[in-house]
Amino acid sequence: MFSPIVDRLKNAASILTGNRSPKQHPHFVVITIDTEARRERSPEAPVERLFWGRFEGREYGIPMIMDMADAFGYPAIFFTDTLTVRSYGKPPIREVCEEIMRRGHDCALHSHPELHIPDYQERFDYYWTDEGVLGWLGEAAGLLEEFTGRPTRAYRAGGYRVSPASFRAMRRIGIEADFSSLLGHKQCMIDASYCNNAVRKYDGVYEVPVSVYHDVKGAPKKLDVNWRNAETFRWHLQEAMAAGVLCTTIFLHSWSFLKFDATWLDATQAVGVDEQAIANFQGMLEVVRDTPGVRVVDSLELIEYLRANPDVLDGADTIPDARPAEAA
Q1: CA geometry: angle at 277 spanning 236 and 216, to 5°?
Q2: pTM to 2 decimals?
Q3: What fold characterizes domain 24-314?
Q4: In b/e form, how buried is each residue of 250-273, taking b as 16+ CB within 10 angstroms?
Q5: Pick the residue with more confidence: 225 or 323?
Q6: Domain positions in the chain
Q7: pLDDT tens by residue, 223-274
């Protein structure tokens, strides 16, 4: 009969002593787009085709992605390969960055030095020294700052290729958050297992990994709209939230809504529209809308939240697992 009084006294004591319950953090979703152009994939007008997605009189690239995100009021993060200016000049890449900013989305940094530095392959080892990384990454960050008018604070490496030298360079440049780590990827030159799905700090830089789950064979898979549907995303999101994981990443390329005549590096031209990828992205956005407790943010909002709430760096690092319990 005295339990309500006892409970109130306990609550009062907690307020006076500061022993409050742990803060409940939202679950963040980041919509990330690797925004890039490689001549091999589209020999004719690669910026037109691969950034803007221009195909048969319509735009299936950046503009369509922004339109779809805007319909839900969500910001998208366009990790933009500014080193593309080495191949195609400044004006078309400046236009891309300015349009992203004009539409109210996030223009962050991406880089594919292997596509735009002529002697990259021959001098691979040099380009991954501290001096080498600082050289091309500093150039890329400087271009982004020129095009956007603001400091470069967030980055994703092309091909997930980050090394300890990358993080030293990021700190010198002023990049505060990296979104490159992908568990199991052969080009990731750091041990990604230290943050499978959790946001952590690596050498003073926030690391926001590409979200992964284990498929039925135990292989890590990312939530890429070209390969995963809305139901897989819904399952992953529910599992991650239940486990207390802080952030889930939706993954696209600027050319994700086009079909090509072959896959990945063998492709040479667009041959159609990937309606399934468009449907997958639309479905993922609907899942986010219908899931309580989810907050979609851009890179700067996430950085500010991490700075204000350092305890989130101690959060769960669970990998959702699609394998049967006896096989997991």
Answers
A1: 40
A2: 0.91
A3: TIM Barrel (3.20.20)
A4: bbbbbbbbbbbeeeeeebeebeeb
A5: 225
A6: 24-314
A7: 999 999 999 999 999 999 999 999 999 999 999 999 988 776 677 788 999 9
